[in-house]
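Hi F.,

I've been meaning to write this up properly since the lab meeting, where we talked about keeping a consistent format for the predictions we share between groups. The idea is simple: the sequence comes first, exactly as it goes in, then the structure tokens exactly as they come out, then a line or two of notes. No screenshots and no reformatting. I'm using this chain as the first example so we have something concrete to point to.
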Amino acid sequence: MQMTIDNLTQQIGSTGTLQGWLQQKRASKGLFFLVLRDGTGMVQCVVNQEKVDETSWQCATQATQESSLIITGEVLKDERQIGGVEIQVSSVEVIQYVDDYPITPKSHGIDFLMDHRHLWLRSRRPWAVMRIRNRIIMSIHKFFQERGFLQMDAPLLTKNAVEGTSTLFEIDYFGNPAYLTQSGQLHGEVMAMAFNKIYTFGPVFRAEKSKTRRHLIEFWMIEPEMAFYDLDMNMALAEDFLVRIASDVLSECDEELNLLGRNLDALQKVQSPFPRMTYTEAVELLKSDETRLKVKAKEEELHSEHSELQQERTSNQQNYGRLKEWKKRRVDAREIEINVRIGEIEEELRNLPQWWSSAESFEWGSDFGGSDETLLTWYFESPIIVHRYPEAVKAFYMKRDPEDDRLALGMDILAPEGFGEIIGGGQRADDLTFLEEQVRRHNLPKDAFEWYFDLRRYGTVPHSGFGLGLERTVAWICGIEHIRETIPFPRMLGRLSP
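Output, unedited:
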């Protein structure tokens, strides 16, 4: 019987065959413990020399990391093992032996791992992240489909700037200039006027020369647009959306979250209602003395964690020579984690004084930077919604607040734990004269937007929408520091391969 690892708990007591790759191996007298990976999961396979033929024993003996194997055996329940089961092996067959696999349990620098991303994806951490990414994608589709939304596709080639002209990728389109899309939103509005509630799900491109941990050149956006929705309805939908994503991941990805060491309490606190504040209230909070005290407390917390990690590393090094080989491999893996975390802490400690200086001098009318968003989220355990921004920092198509013309009816949702903006959106301008004036103010080509103006000429209605960045959401849900790990093949400044 052919089996897959993800279904082994339903196969306890059965004998079947698995096909996969050797993740790791350790030996004991007369025994090999092979951790097999088949893409759906991982399982320990116990090869007992007394219970297999000589050919199988030699295959197990010679198998190396990432060798491709066919393993037959009985599925036994064992709560101590990965997934709560293990395989008592009756035969081992090698499809291919692998020599000198470059990604070993030893420490590798991030540049090395990114250069070998095509192989790094096989490792445990990327395996967990990509499976959570898949679960988030499925949750997104279910959320909108259950609410009567129609999935539609916006073009990737466009004549229009959506998020400003400075981050456009220009290409030659048969002798005419065209651009890789920054957002499907403008075309999403068109489709909402025809179908009422739609969402797009596709790649977008921003030519930002940025190397921050929150930026990619190519990423995926989910952009719902809804006719007859105002700002409050828009915020309520976005809130329900994030609650659903967090809930689905918690219920379906327990193994993956545990492998990543994710703090589940943080995700369990993603519950309605989210705190809401106006931009003006957020500025006042950001500049307050309480924020200064939070920065100081954070410094003390980071220094304490740094000291504890250094002590753990020293202890591991002192005891290393007395450990068995399998324990050494665990220590090696932990050493990588410690080094990465110490590097993150040291960077945060360097940044904190600058963050407070930026917050203290923040002026009303400016847009929030990444550090400002981080400081604001320190006050809350769930995502927060900031709304009614100065119109100057929002896109030209945002509707103005009828009670204060300086403000746009826009909103951002900031994820807790310092992950920053994951949703941005708002109510769209529905007045033709206002929109034409906005295009002139922003020095945009009027003829390129005539089709967009038609939405206000023929049956205009109040409408709203938002965009969720998939990779930022995956980073937040997984608790990953850098967004480059959240997409199979990241495209960043200076990286176009593999």
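Notes:
The radius of gyration is 26 Å.
The CA atoms of residues 209 and 493 lie 6 Å apart.

If this format works for you, I'll send the rest the same way.

G.
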